[in-house]
From TrEMBL:
Protein name, UniProt field: Glutathione hydrolase proenzyme
Record-linked Pfam families: G_glu_transpept (PF01019)
Post-translational modification: Cleaved by autocatalysis into a large and a small subunit.
Top-level taxon of origin: Bacteria
Taxonomic placement: Bacteria, Bacillati, Actinomycetota, Actinomycetes, Kitasatosporales
Signal peptide residue numbers: 1-23
Gene: ggt
């Protein structure tokens, strides 16, 4: 589901009644923080899609917390202000740079399928369940990984208690935040299915109506949930009453009988919660232009696919290429990397994923020779064999790229000691499953719909079919780039389903090769090729002369109004941090620093 572009609803804001859960509330006496796309200064930096969330991270940094503490605080706040993108009902991937040891570490906090799941999880009467039927159901809900990710990160590298870093988010949920165009338009796009579930309708359609722009939206249930997590720890979810409520909601989704909606029950159990672990694992590592690029390894395909594409591009001097040739090579490298992703990447606990081979320069060179300056590859392109590279070779039959919900959120944080976090978290679709846990104030994910419902290509093994306790493949690509001395150069990431990979790749090459300022590399109009017949273009490219020049080579395009919503931080040579976010997408992002400086 495409996250809607902000609409101009300022007229509504003038006459908006202030809303909250269950009752009207007076306007907030504290104005919303200013939303700016770039900030420079000392003491640390935070970049996210939301000003309240970025401010929560800055608050923790100012009180002596480090980048990990601030990242958890920012993520928790996003669970309040961006509840259709993230929250404790979802999962994500956490990448951390430790300045003292100059090493990168990661956490796989992806949701898992129930232990009773098998390859037929989304098959009924011998056919794949329609995607829309699976989304708004208990069947698509995986075991939440976000709370475990927060605790694991704090235990390993943080300096504050969970309860301490949850306080800013708890306060925002209790006191409310100002509804903007994006929040209202997202609610509007989900209104029909939100009405299937009375608890969701009560929370997000207060008084039976869409929340008005400029009104104050409160979520006291979520404030109480955060307070409970702060007191009891994440055991309240994985071994306690909160977990029991999640299981009960999944097993019997609280649907309005009058809606006629078949909210298929899921099979999530107390045991699934009890055995869940957020996994520490080694990052992916790719050398590019003399720099080391670190990201997340499978179960996400982000690190391997971005890394393979960078390796393919390594032999081309993109800094001297024309804009047409730069985009041509970027598109073709993306096409090839996605062909390999679809064949080889899945949950490594279940699949033999050739991660090292996918990231080898030898393999990338064997695939790069497919790219011609004056011709375009045909999609779907067949994968290669990373274990036995053959020049311009392919192995087996091509498979189409399966759909992933495009909603998620990304945050990037740095602290005064030089530690950095790049963290992407999600509940999958805009609005996740649409199912709110009664009395708890948060939506459940529909992350299991990221599995292939049936084999993407029946002729070959699909590594992304469901399985018991298996993690569905993701495209999340939180990335940290270090120089040859192990010091941070830039960190970034994006939401956007499978377009995350192309967004991160394009932003990295725009910054590292085309030498765009970070905020401009983020703002540049995007293209996304995912081994499909057509490449998606944002209006800035679709409506430009570049489109015709690329079509003359053989490219075919279709429009996409908005691709991704990146954030990043950059370490400047003089020790200052630069935080950058979107200028326009999702209404613009929020970049902040602890001590602003010119």
């Amino acid at each position: 589901m495409q996250r809607p572009v902000r609409r101009n609803l300022a007229v509504l804001a003038v006459s908006a009644a202030v809303v909250s859960v269950g009752a009207a509330a007076p306007p907030s006496s504290t104005p919303a923080p200013e939303k700016v796309p770039v900030a420079v200064g000392y003491g640390g930096a935070v970049a996210s899609v939301d000003a309240d969330a970025s401010a929560a991270g800055i608050e923790v940094l100012k009180k002596g917390g480090n980048a990990v503490d601030a990242a958890v605080a920012t993520a928790a706040a996003l669970g309040v202000t961006e509840p259709y993108s993230a929250g404790i009902g979802g999962g994500g991937y956490f990448v951390y740079y430790d300045a003292k040891s100059r090493t990168v570490h990661t956490i796989d906090g992806r949701e898992t399928a129930p232990l009773t799941a098998d390859e037929g999880l989304f098959v009924e009467k011998g056919k794949a369940l329609p995607f829309a039927d699976a989304v708004s159901s208990g069947l698509g809900v995986g075991t939440p990984g976000t709370p475990a990710t927060w605790q694991k990160a704090l235990d390993e590298w943080g300096t504050k208690r969970l309860g301490t870093v949850l306080r800013p988010a708890e306060r925002i949920a209790r006191d409310g935040f100002t509804v903007d165009d994006t929040f209202r338009s997202q609610t509007a796009s989900n209104e029909a299915r939100f009405r299937y579930f009375p608890d969701t309708a009560k929370l997000f359609l207060p008084g039976g109506a869409l929340p008005a722009v400029g009104s104050t939206f409160k979520n006291p249930d979520l404030a109480r949930t955060y307070a409970e997590l702060g007191r009891k720890g994440i055991g309240a979810i994985y071994h306690g009453d909160l977990g029991d409520d999640i299981v009960a909601t999944v097993e019997k989704p609280p649907v309005d009988p009058a809606s006629g909606w078949n909210a298929r029950p899921g099979k999530l159990s107390d045991k699934d919660l009890a055995v869940y672990r957020a996994e520490l694992q080694a990052p992916t590592k790719t050398s590019y232009r003399g720099l080391d690029v670190y990201s997340i390894a499978p179960s996400s395909s982000g690190g391997t696919t971005v890394g393979e594409a960078l390796n393919i591009l390594e032999r081309t001097d993109l800094s001297k290429a024309s804009e047409v040739q730069y985009l041509h090579h970027f598109i073709e490298a993306s096409r090839i990397a996605f062909a390999d992703r679809g064949r080889w990447v899945g949950d490594p606990a279940f699949e033999d994923v050739p991660t090292k081979d996918l990231l080898s320069q030898r393999y990338a060179d064997s695939r790069a020779c497919l790219i011609k300056d004056d011709a375009v590859l045909t999609s779907p392109l067949a994968p290669g064999d990373p274990r036995h590279p053959a020049a311009c070779g392919a192995r087996g039959t091509a498979a189409p790229t399966t759909y992933e919900g495009e909603n998620t959120t990304h945050l990037t944080v740095a602290d005064k000691w030089g530690n950095v976090v790049s963290y992407t978290l999600t509940i999958e679709q805009t609005g996740g499953s649409g199912i709110t846990v009664p009395g708890r104030g948060f939506l459940l994910n529909n992350e299991l719909t990221d599995f292939s419902f049936t084999p993407a290509n029946p002729a070959v093994h699909d590594p992304n079919l469901p399985g018991p306790g298996k993690r569905p493949r993701s495209s999340i690509s939180p990335t940290i780039v270090l120089d040859k001395h192990g010091r941070p150069v830039v960190a970034l990431g994006s939401p956007g389903g499978a377009t995350i990979i192309t967004t991160v790749l394009q932003t990295l090459t725009g910054f590292l090769d085309r030498h765009l300022p970070l905020v401009d590399a983020i703002a540049a109009p995007r293209a996304s090729q995912r081994n499909a017949a057509q490449t998606e273009l944002e209006p800035g490219l679709y409506d430009s002369a570049l489109k015709a020049r690329l079509e003359a080579i053989g490219h075919s395009f279709k429009p996409n109004p908005e691709i991704g919503a990146a954030t990043g931080v950059q370490r400047l040579p003089d020790g200052r941090w630069l935080a950058a976010a979107e200028k326009v997408r999702r209404g613009g992002g929020s970049a902040m620093v602890v001590k602003p400086a010119p």
